[in-house]
Amino acid sequence: MENNELKKYSFSTLCVHGSGGADPTTGAISIPIYQSSTFKFKSARHGAQLFAGEIEGYVYTRLGNPTQAAFEREMAFLEGGEAALAFASGMGAISSVIFALCRSGENLVSTNTLYGGTHNFFKETLPRFDIDVREVDTTNLENVINVIDDKTRLLYIETPANPTLTITDLKACARIARDYQIPLVVDNTFPTPYFQRPLQLGADIVIHSATKYIGGHGDTVAGVVVGKKDFIDELRGKFLRDLGAVISPLNAWLLVRGLKTLAIRMEKHQQNAIKIAKFLQFHPKIKRVWYPGLTTHPQHELAKKQMEGFGGMVSFEIHGGRRAGEHLMNAVKLITLAVSLGDVDSLIEHPASMTHSTYSAEELAECGITESLVRLSVGIEDARDLIEDLSQALRKVKV
Ligand SMILES: *Cc1c(COP(=O)(O)O)cnc(C)c1O
Questions:
Q1: Most CB contacts within 10 A, which of 30, 275, 312, 389?
Q2: For domain 3-260, which architecture applies?
Q3: Atom 2 of ligand 1 has which residue's CA nearest to it?
Q4: Please, are residues 84 and 199 in contact by the beta-carbon 8 Å criterion?
Q5: How do residues 19-77 score in pLDDT, each as one tens digit?
Q6: 380: burial class by Cβ within 10 Å (0-12, 13-18, 19+)?
Q7: Is the CB of 119 under 6 A from ligand 1?
């Protein structure tokens, strides 16, 4: 199908059908898993031409593989970008992008509420390379403008942020980034392109931990970057090549399959999340619920404006602090006590002691990640069963 013909279809149809159709060599409707590390050259000259970049083709799987390429094509298509590059993990994607954009002596400006691993990379690893990270509360963009200087090389935003689900204004960030001529990089893991397409709002680069909703089944660790073709080519040719965080063909295949059900999964995640958020909101043992779809969320209006839905993540504070939270997490029966998110099964965890234990006590306080905060990745089970499970567990909690 031609690209303009595809435009008449809705996003959920595009998730199922993808951009390209069947495998060009075999006609297989499911892209084959090209489980090969290396590719035969037709002649010595052919090999030399491939290495010189004079012609396109496959050389060695760290530099590209047809199954990986199929996943990249679909991600670029769904995010509305020119090109994409897959990685072995979300952190592989994030670290490669930052190293591609920043040199020692330079800095980046970022949201202060981030995935714990990203925060650790920003605050522990990057300073060893003399790259300074300025994490600020991006719900007030004055904070961003105040710390940008002539050594700032990018603006990095996670929205909705993990785990507090605070929302940052992407259009306004894109304007700031343009004013200072730096790229806006957005971690779009939580909403996925089904609910938010940052490139259309003015962002330059989108990153995913594809481990989460893109794969969707809790069976794959992977990452992906979407952006302009020039940038993606440089990322592949220099940083994937040198840092080596390459995705395996099997994992790329699992992600292509995951994308086919992205729309229907995201719808169900969201339907369930809304019901659970409303149930928790009025529960006497719950102090506060964080879900962008609730009118009580401080940036609900902004979420409505820049997102097409609110996603499947719900965080809440429980009366009785950390002990009550631990009691709840030990008492659930259907919901699994585990980190990660975006799986078909519901997962519950305690950010302050688990995913966000890389934050210092002061940093946790600054971001509003309290000891009593519990994060729930709402799965696609029947909402009644999930609410019943939370309900029985909350009955056991002493506040
Ligand atoms: C999990 C996650 C990451 C890191 O991805 P991995 O695949 O675990 O390396 C980055 N950002 C967000 C928002 C995440 O949830």
A1: 312
A2: 3-Layer(aba) Sandwich (3.40)
A3: 209
A4: no
A5: 877 787 888 999 999 999 999 999 999 999 999 999 999 999 999 999 999 999 999 99
A6: buried
A7: no
